[in-house]
Amino acid sequence: MDSAHFYLLREHIEENLPHMWSVLVIRHGYLIFEEYYQATPNDYQEIASTTKSIISALIGVALQGGYIKSLDQKVVDFYPEYIISNTDPTISEVTLEHLLTMTSGLERETNYGDDWIKSTLEQSISDTPGKVFHYSDSAAHLLSGILTRTTHMTALEFGNQYLFQPLGIPAPPWETDPQGNNVGSDGLSLRPREMAKIGYLYLNQGLWDGKQLVPAEWIQVSTQKHTEADILNDDYGYLWWVSTVEGHAAYYAAGAGGQFIYVVPDSDLVVVMTGNATFPELTQHLDIVKLFILPAILERSSLFNGHLKDRVQRVEQK
After folding, report:
1. Which long-range contacts (CB under 8 A, 24 or more apart) does 70-75 make?
2. Among positive and negative, which fits the CA dihedral 294, 297, 302, 307?
3. Distance CA 30, CA 226 (A)
4. pLDDT band per the 50, 70, 90 thresholds, residue 250
5. Given this chain, do its domains 1-43+192-318 and 49-190 carry the same CATH topology?
6. Residues 6+ apart with CB under 8 A from 24
7. What is the model's pTM?
8. What value does the mean pLDDT take over residues 65-86?
């Protein structure tokens, strides 16, 4: 990779992205760029909705392990005690796959009460399950609860056994609801290098140090398009965002504030970003992949125009 691009990236962040806290770039398994702004390598970052992509990985592990029989299983079958006479009958049609693809019909925001699962299942369904994308925190939280019901472990306990510990990640902080279920939508904290391990695991189709931690088939199916999303201008897989960057297939986990695990498989590339950005600023974080990181690999990129060439030459002269 052309290191001059990383001088430009560092300059760009310092001048234009005050809400960026860290950037890590991993290529061919090597950490080649690691910069921290208002943070240190040992600081935990609450990764917000990037948590959802971790839940997706754990659902894949649970499915392979037989804890979950099928993605066609109905959500209500896991919580029969919450189904009462005035429950919206359409909720009986919601499957695990609908939760994973954000097409359950559940509303975007949930006013949780004392029992988060109960409050979610008391919602009305706004659209036929499987038809319309509705980004829903409560859908992801239901999946965390289902992990607990089927494995008899919290998502954190299950994750420690099958994901975090094998990756060399000490048990991370993870918030819970009043019933002790780890929050499925957010609330997980990781260090940036730990986020990079998750990205590298996915880049390598679930294989880590010779051991298959997440089924390769699950990674393939969960990082391909299942539905068109109406935010971030990208598509959606199984709790992973699906995109293209400069014609290259990519996928990423995304969280509020600018928490990203971004994977470009055919470039053997993982990019991790953390920050404290507002929603409109999130795209500025994503833009550094196409403006600075990919051009360092792809010298003939259309983005590597005369202006950038002049800046590279100026940096090299310094």
Report:
1. 70/96, 71/95, 71/96, 71/97, 71/100, 72/96, 72/97, 75/99, 75/104, 75/121, 75/142, 75/146
2. positive
3. 31
4. very high
5. yes
6. 31, 33, 34, 192, 193, 195, 196, 270, 271, 272, 273
7. 0.92
8. 94
CA–CA separation, 283 vs 300, rounded Å?
A: 23
The domain limits of the chain are 1-43+192-318, 49-190
CA 204 to chain centre: 16
- Domain 49-190: give its CATH code: 3.40.710.10
CB 36 within 8 A of CB 21: yes
Closest CA to 52 of 217, 254, 209: 254
The two tokens of residue 63 are: 């499915």
Distances (CA, A) of 304 to 75, 247, 288, 312: 49, 15, 13, 10
Quick one: DSSP state of residue 267?
A: G
Q: What is the pLDDT of residue 301?
A: 44
* C-beta separation of 65 from 279 below 8 A: no
Check pLDDT > 60 for residue 306.
no
Look-up of token digits 């690999």: 297
Confidence of residue 109 (pLDDT cuts 50, 70, 90): low
Q: Read off the pLDDT of residues 186-241 as tens digits, 9 standing for 90 and up.
A: 999 999 999 999 999 999 999 999 999 999 999 999 999 999 998 888 999 999 99
- Closest-CA residue to 260 (of 13, 21, 5, 36): 21
**Residue 300 in this model has a pLDDT that exceeds 50:** no
At residue 266, does pLDDT exceed 70?
yes
The DSSP line for 167-194 is: TT-----B-B-TTSPBPSSS-BEE-HHH
Query: What are 308-318's pLDDT values in tens digits?
Result: 555 545 555 54
Length of the chain: 318
Q: Which among 287, 312, 291, 313 is positioned nearest to 301, based on CA atoms? A: 291
Q: Which CATH class is domain 1-43+192-318?
A: alpha beta
